[in-house]
């Protein structure tokens, strides 16, 4: 094998090799060198082994991964690839070979701090990493919340809280066709919103061989460029389609002398697969996990004795909860799309590759240099009863089986533009809850302000901070009778009603609004009408973000304030009391003083630092998500920004939080952070003469 590693001024790897297999090995090698600690954490998480060196805080995750059969599903999917697509299987093997070469003798300081050595990757490991990364991406725990809310607050409560919850991930993306650009060629831009990690969840990279030359954002630990790429003649990008493709079944299980049985929809008890696994926990005794799988799927909550801890749900008979998800059913994770994407030359090629996609379900935008455009959903969504999509369904009742797959919807452009921001777009028939339309409407409105756009113009859209979802709370403020307020509260009311509704880091008014919003959320959550929903059911800790009442109210506040009735709660009185509370002790600074970045790290940083203040908010185009009523810190935000120019690929732009390298002390560990914070973008370099050759490999 032969190849070479080049770097640009930002330390971004540009890889060149004789063919796809050699290039895959090179990608695995450079990923291990640049992101060795990161991908090893992901390998352990994908195998349910992270608590062995990260401690008991990861135990609930490890147990879920074991019970959901993530590693076993990855093995199944890889075995199917070997049978049906041996070229892709061999390509993945080459990537894993490179990873193992790069991890050998790896000197990342985190390994020493955690007391762990790099392990060995198997050919199926990248598939396990992908499955683990996206296990909660579709938000199936939201069904646990809907069941809980309906049982405690009534069926109507489900609609009141219908908004994207704290555990979901989204993105912005927009396509401007050539008829609306200064060059006559299309531009695609956007930013994926995910939990901000350090190192980042996306890796800027270039993959070049005689067959293709692609720049894009890769997922460390996974070969190719799945989500965002530019081949020179075609570019593509995705957002979360918010489709519902994972089902939860209530199961009735019983132990027998031969093992375990589950009650099926025909009234017959059938054998359920069962075995035990041991999860090691640093500093504590190992934990034995019972792994059970019925004909519906792996049991992820509870068992024959009921919910975890032996607590019967709602005082009824003991129940367990099984998860059914497409790759477990089909043995296909969609990795057959990865090589065709790299080889794509047109939107027709991207379209055919998207037909092979499985999970997660995405909305895809693509444009090519011949003027072609693509706007479609990609992924596998089962056809089944509507009840499956909304809540937990009883496994012992008929009518909840899967009956094939939905045809992925398609859409066109509107006046030369397509916008995707997790709203009810083309994927509407496939989902239940979507993001509020504010980001999509705002992007469309901004794009409508000009007849012609260029790639250089797009950063201004990335960083827009207008908060349309502030309207219901401000409407309540406007309806208050000013003479009934104290002087400070009246002044604060007038100030917020005059506010421009932009969540800028330097804005004291934005800080005051956020303080008021948080106070309203907490006061609503304390209302007796919500008391029955305040205590979550005894589900594992990993599901708690979906079940906590205060965040649920915080993210649904717009709907709760605008609803015709809210359980007879006197909302004007709640807003008035919150206004007086904040006026009596107003925030002392600006929004960015408390709205700071809170990236996830597997280990605390060796050098404690104050993270930067941020502009934006959950419903802004600049989506930096705080949790109203809980914290102003932002754990989620733009995990990358990109602009793909079809006229000249070298006029494309991109940036990631932190930097290209995952190695502390590297000059490229955090060198893109100032750009990311300012909303600036780095150039995509395509001229090999402008790159520095690092090594031949």
Automatic annotation (TrEMBL):
Organism of this sequence: Streptomyces erythrogriseus
Protein name in the entry: Penicillin amidase
Superkingdom as given in the UniProt entry: Bacteria
InterPro entries documented for this protein: Ntn_hydrolases_N, Pen/GL7ACA/AHL_acylase, Penicillin_amidase_A-knob, Penicillin_amidase_dom1, Penicillin_amidase_N_B-knob, S45
Pfam families the record matches: Penicil_amidase
Family under the similarity heading: Belongs to the peptidase S45 family.
SUPFAM superfamilies named among the record's database cross-references: N-terminal nucleophile aminohydrolases (Ntn hydrolases)
The UniProt record lists the keyword Hydrolase: yes
Keywords: Hydrolase, Zymogen
């Amino acid at each position: 094998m032969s190849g070479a590693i080049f770097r640009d001024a930002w330390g971004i790897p540009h890889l060149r090799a004789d063919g796809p297999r050699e290039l895959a090995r090179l990608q695995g090698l450079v990923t291990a060198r640049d992101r060795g600690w990161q991908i090893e954490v992901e390998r352990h998480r994908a195998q349910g082994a992270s608590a062995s060196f990260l401690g008991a805080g990861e135990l609930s995750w490890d147990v879920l991964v074991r019970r959901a059969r993530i590693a076993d599903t990855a093995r199944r999917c890889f075995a199917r690839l070997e049978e049906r697509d041996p070229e892709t299987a061999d390509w993945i093997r080459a990537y894993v070979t490179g990873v193992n070469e790069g991890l050998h003798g790896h000197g990342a300081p985190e390994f020493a701090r955690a007391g762990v050595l790099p392990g060995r990757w198997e050919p199926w490991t990248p598939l396990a990493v992908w499955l683990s990364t996206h296990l909660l991406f579709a938000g199936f725990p939201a069904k646990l919340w809907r069941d809980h809310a309906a049982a405690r607050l009534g069926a109507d409560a489900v609609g009141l809280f219908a908004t994207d919850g704290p555990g979901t991930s989204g993105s912005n993306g927009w396509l401007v066709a050539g008829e609306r650009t200064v060059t006559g060629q299309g531009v695609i831009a956007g930013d994926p919103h995910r939990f901000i990690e350090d190192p980042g969840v996306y890796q800027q990279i270039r993959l070049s061989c005689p067959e293709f030359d692609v720049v894009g954002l890769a997922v460390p630990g996974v070969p190719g460029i799945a989500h965002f790429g530019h081949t020179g003649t075609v570019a593509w990008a995705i957002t979360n389609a918010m489709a519902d493709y994972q089902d939860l079944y209530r199961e009735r299980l019983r132990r027998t002398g031969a093992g375990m049985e589950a009650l099926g929809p025909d009234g017959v008890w059938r054998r359920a697969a069962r075995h035990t696994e041991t999860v090691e926990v640093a500093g504590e005794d190992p934990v034995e996990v019972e792994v059970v799988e019925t004909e519906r799927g792996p049991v992820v909550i509870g068992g024959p004795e009921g919910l975890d801890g032996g607590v019967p749900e709602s005082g009824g008979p003991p129940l367990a909860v099984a998860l059914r998800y497409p790759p477990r059913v089909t043995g296909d994770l969609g990795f057959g799309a990865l090589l065709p994407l790299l080889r794509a030359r047109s939107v027709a090629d991207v379209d055919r590759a998207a037909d092979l996609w499985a999970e997660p379900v995405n909305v895809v935008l693509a444009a090519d240099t011949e003027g072609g455009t693509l706007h479609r959903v990609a992924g596998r969504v089962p056809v089944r009863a509507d009840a499956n999509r909304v809540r937990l369904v009883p496994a012992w009742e008929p009518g909840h089986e899967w009956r094939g797959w939905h045809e992925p919807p398609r859409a066109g452009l509107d006046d030369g533009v397509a916008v995707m921001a997790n709203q009810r777009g083309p994927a509407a028939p496939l989902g239940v809850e979507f993001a509020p339309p504010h980001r999509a409407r705002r992007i469309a409105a901004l794009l409508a302000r000009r007849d012609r756009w260029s790639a250089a113009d797009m950063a201004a859209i990335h960083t827009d901070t207008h908060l349309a979802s502030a309207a219901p709370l401000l409407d309540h403020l406007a309806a208050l009778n000013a003479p009934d307020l104290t002087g400070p509260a009246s002044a604060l009311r007038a100030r917020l009603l005059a506010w421009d509704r932009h969540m800028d880091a330097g804005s004291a008014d934005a800080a005051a609004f956020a303080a008021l919003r948080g106070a309203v959320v907490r006061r609503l959550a304390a209302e007796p009408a919500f008391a029955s929903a305040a205590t979550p059911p005894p589900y594992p800790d990993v599901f708690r973000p979906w079940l906590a009442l205060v965040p649920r109210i915080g993210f649904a506040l717009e709907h709760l304030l605008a609803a015709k009735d809210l359980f007879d709660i006197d909302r004007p009185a709640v807003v008035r009391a919150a206004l007086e509370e904040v006026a009596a002790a107003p925030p002392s600074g600006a929004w960015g003083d408390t709205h700071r970045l809170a990236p996830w790290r597997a280990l605390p940083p060796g050098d404690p630092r104050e993270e930067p203040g941020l502009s934006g908010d959950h419903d802004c185009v600049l989506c930096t998500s705080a949790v109203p009523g809980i914290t102003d810190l932002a754990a989620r935000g733009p995990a990358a920004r990109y602009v793909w120019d079809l006229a000249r690929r070298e006029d494309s732009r991109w940036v990631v939080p932190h930097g290209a390298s995952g190695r502390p002390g590297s000059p490229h560990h955090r060198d893109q952070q100032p750009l990311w914070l300012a909303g600036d973008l780095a150039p995509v370099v395509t001229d090999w003469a402008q790159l520095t050759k690092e090594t031949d490999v």
